[in-house]
Amino acid sequence: MKPSRWINGIATAVLALWTAAIGSVPAVAAAAHRTAPAMASSKRSYSSAASQVGASTGHVTQDNDSVPVTGQSVGVIENLHMFSAQDGWAFAVANSGARLLRTVDGGKQWTVVSPLLAKSDVIVGRAFINSNAAWLAVQSQPVNFFAARPLRFLRTQNGGRTWQTVSSFTLPNGVPVQSVQFDLITPTAGFVMVQPQHGMGSEPGLLYAVSGAGKRFSLRSENLYAYAPAKASSLPNGGSIYFSSLRVGWLVAADCTTCTERLYETANGGKNWRRIPLPVPRSDRGRTPNLLSAPFSPVTGGALYLAAFMDGNIGLNSSALYRYDSATHRWLYDGVLPDNYGSLQMMASRPPYVDFTSAANGYVMGTNRLYETVNGGRNWSPVPGGPQKTTATADLQEIDFVSKQTGWILWNTHPANGKDVSLLYESVDGGHSWKLMLRTVPTAII
Fold it and tell me: What is the three-state SS of 50-62?
């Protein structure tokens, strides 16, 4: 879940207003393995934020009446999630804002299925549950910084034709939200990690459990600022989450925006956390694994993986892969991913360059070559005829495979004048050949 430049621009403006209102705030800068600008606040205790309950408030009128869009009007695609060879979702941004898209023909045609939102509303989180169900987290971030800002959760169960606001509550002091990560165990139950705007010196977070058919959000643990008093129920830090059940889950978190990401585990639904050390290969002895995402699983489940780089090697060496052994309840070093990946960024979910379709089969897109594994990541082989980098300015946005045969690759290029172009390709033969499905026109997104 990579925050968009459109969202980041709004966050930067909000930061300036917050700084003027409360005084000194740590400077915000982009870090190599983090994604969004952040902001800090003065020291406060927010224990009163526990146990929020939101009620269903009916349906939101569908924006644009599910209008099909062409490559000229899609915008820049930042996130793709396909559920079958035909059905999937995308999140796109343009200078007019963000939009949710849906396809039912493998990516040839896309339909806008975003709910109707106010001009000051910002989509701060999204989750694609299946081919028909999706969630959005939305917060109003108006010019009047002191206005209360409820965080609203919207859900569709019919492919975006109608949306229902299932819960709404205000964070402590109406603080603006930087990002919301969903991790739902069922379509209506699970967890969300809310990270408010913050500075580089802290990584605050509030972990909520979702229940009651998606209407109840109960605060399980929190860490709003690095210097807040430690509590038994506090998060180590805000970060990225993955839960395998309503009790067992993992958190990848750091003490600050540029600090090393570490792994934590809970066995009681997020109330308490303990640090999990990861093994280091002999070649990297003395280094610390710096995680690149929360744990992620294959399309068919049955395995859990973690991607990391060894501290000091970012952008220079290959990523390491870890695999969870359910028999021993331990994370094992699985090997090194092939190739190099340039500037590695922390992601909420799986890194965009790796995808597994089963516990054995997976793909990795390197600098200019696709690799495949058939033994769970222990060995990798180049795929003959695999995709090539489209232009010198192209950035890999995502690979997304739904089976050993069928997958997509998304490139975003930067031709000129601050405008981007998205290029979406599909393969139906395991990555050996690719067909261009969609090319968008140059679009300014900030």
Answer: CCEECCCCCEECE
